[in-house]
Automatic annotation (TrEMBL):
InterPro entries: Adenine_glyco (IPR005019), DNA-3mA_glycosylase (IPR052891), DNA_glycosylase (IPR011257), Tag (IPR004597)
Gene3D superfamilies: Hypothetical protein, domain 2
Top-level lineage group: Bacteria
Organism of this sequence: Aquimarina litoralis
PANTHER family: DNA-3-METHYLADENINE GLYCOSYLASE 1, DNA-3-METHYLADENINE GLYCOSYLASE I
Protein name: DNA-3-methyladenine glycosylase I
Length: 187
């Protein structure tokens, strides 16, 4: 008998692997936090599986999500990204990755780390929800509204409340594994 997983990932090996190994696990690594932030902003309006399938291409195209490098991307690098068929070629989203890298660094300077900033919204403790079905899970919450508003105030782009909530789920600020999922109590 197989493991019981959240319904959204079942049936696709890539989705299941992401669900089993990353989704909802409290994350504190600066580079990985930035990676998920970029990937979530590129996901806006698309399905997450589309992004997962292109994730390795994004890593190569965006210098392994080195935000120090990305913050200094010039017009030539932007054009190179926009010509890259392996990623989502959206000019506004490419520009947002650069702007968000610059603002990510500013937050690090102000708070000591982006980790301290983002986890400060929950006093460092994940919110553990108790959904019976993944369809019960909201697309956004008052907390994602608050974080979105703060990020926008700091100059971040493509960080609407729904994108922020997906980011919160990905990095484990919220545990939205369903109660019957084997990962629910593990994370």
């Amino acid at each position: 008998m197989g493991k019981t997983r959240c319904g959204w990932c079942v049936g696709d090996p890539l989705y299941e692997s992401y669900h089993d190994n990353e989704w909802g696990v409290p994350l504190h690594d600066e580079q990985l936090l930035f990676e998920f932030l970029v990937l979530e902003t590129f996901q806006a309006g698309l399905s997450w599986i589309t992004i997962l399938r292109k994730r390795d291409n994004f890593r190569v195209a965006f210098d392994n999500f080195d935000y120090q490098l990305i913050a200094r991307y010039d017009d030539n690098k932007k054009e190179e990204l926009l010509q890259n068929p392996g990623i989502i070629r959206n000019k506004l989203k490419v520009n947002s990755a650069i702007t968000n890298a610059q603002n990510f660094i500013k937050i690090q300077e102000e708070f000591g780390s982006f980790d301290a900033y983002i986890w400060g919204f929950v006093d460092g403790k994940p919110i553990k929800n108790a959904w019976k079905d993944h369809k019960e899970c909201p697309a956004n919450t008052p907390l994602s509204d608050k974080i979105s508003k703060d990020l926008k105030k700091r100059g971040f782009k493509f960080v609407g409340s729904t994108v922020v909530y997906a980011f919160m789920q990905a990095i484990g600020i919220v545990n939205d594994h369903t109660v019957d999922c084997y990962r629910y109590n593990e994370v």
